[in-house]
Specification:
275 residues, alpha/beta, TIM Barrel, eight-stranded parallel beta barrel, two-stranded antiparallel ribbon, 8 helices, 15 strands
């Protein structure tokens, strides 16, 4: 049985329990300090109204962009400064990606959750370094990894004595430039750790748009409804107030105006499903 733990003020309950569905949401990358504050405030108002535990997310560096010319973010030092100030101003728990073991301690001083990108989910040194910080660690399941093989990923983090690890499903490679979601993976990984469903990267069409990734955001609600009904602990959504102008992953982002009605529907499903 998975042990209870908290991500800052957000409780993650036992597998199969009836804890409140929590949300991880925000823009893909830090575009500016003003923009992340705007997004955090807007999403926090919605989640507060709906009584949804909320973790803000944004990356200080997108090190796995398709093209060398793509925007990556403000970098480790400036990015973590922005995230620390946002956490202090809003009181929100904050999540960000880490790509290198040397970044973990620095990022951990500013945020509550370190996220391991899907492409790096087998990198032992990175997983161990993240675990050693004592922060909660969210690992995105690689598009190339079977759900049952994430057991080894969990063990790499927990070998440090840190039990606060959870897993995120974000689709599996299905030929070139396409992903599919096997809903069975949610139940399989949920025997290993609490599970989050990434409703926005799961509709991504990787590297399909002339040097950037495309997406099919019209399917975000469909997949999110199915995942909540199947049984998950949390939901991950990249949300932007103007996806067409987003500097990263706008093609698969959820428009901010669509967040409240989607969450209202998902909470009804979560309560009815009881899983």
């Amino acid at each position: 049985m998975i042990q209870d733990f908290e991500i800052a003020t957000v409780p993650v309950g036992r597998v199969g329990g009836k804890s409140r569905l929590f949300l991880i949401a925000g823009p893909c990358v830090i575009e500016s300090e003003a923009h992340v504050r705007l997004m955090a405030d807007a999403i926090q108002r919605i989640t507060s109204d709906l009584n949804v535990p909320y973790i803000f997310k944004a990356s200080y560096d997108k090190a796995n962009r398709t093209s060398v010319h793509s925007f990556r973010g403000p970098g480790l030092i400036e990015g973590t400064r922005i995230l620390r100030r946002l956490a202090e101003a809003t009181g929100l728990p904050v999540l960000t990606d880490v790509h290198e073991p040397a970044h973990c301690e620095i990022a951990a001083e500013a945020v509550d959750v370190l996220q391991i990108p899907a492409f790096l989910c087998r990198q032992t040194d990175l997983l161990v370094a993240a675990g050693r910080t004592g922060r909660a660690v969210n690992v995105k399941k690689g598009q190339f990894v079977a759900p049952w093989d994430m057991e080894h990923t969990v063990q790499k983090v927990t070998s440090t004595g840190n039990p606060r690890v959870f897993l995120t499903e974000r689709g599996t490679s299905f030929g070139y430039n396409n992903l599919v979601v096997d809903m069975r993976s949610l139940a399989i990984m949920r025997t290993l750790a609490p599970v989050v469903f990434d409703g926005t990267h799961s509709v991504q069409t990787p590297s399909s748009a002339n040097g950037v990734s495309g997406g099919q955001p019209e399917f975000i609600p469909l997949l999110a409804r199915a995942a909540v009904a199947a049984g998950i602990d949390g939901l991950f959504l990249e949300v932007h107030d103007n996806p067409a102008a987003a500097k990263s992953d706008g093609a698969n982002a959820l428009n901010l105006r669509d967040l409240r009605p989607l969450l209202e529907t998902l909470l009804e499903i979560h309560d009815a499903a009881g899983v």
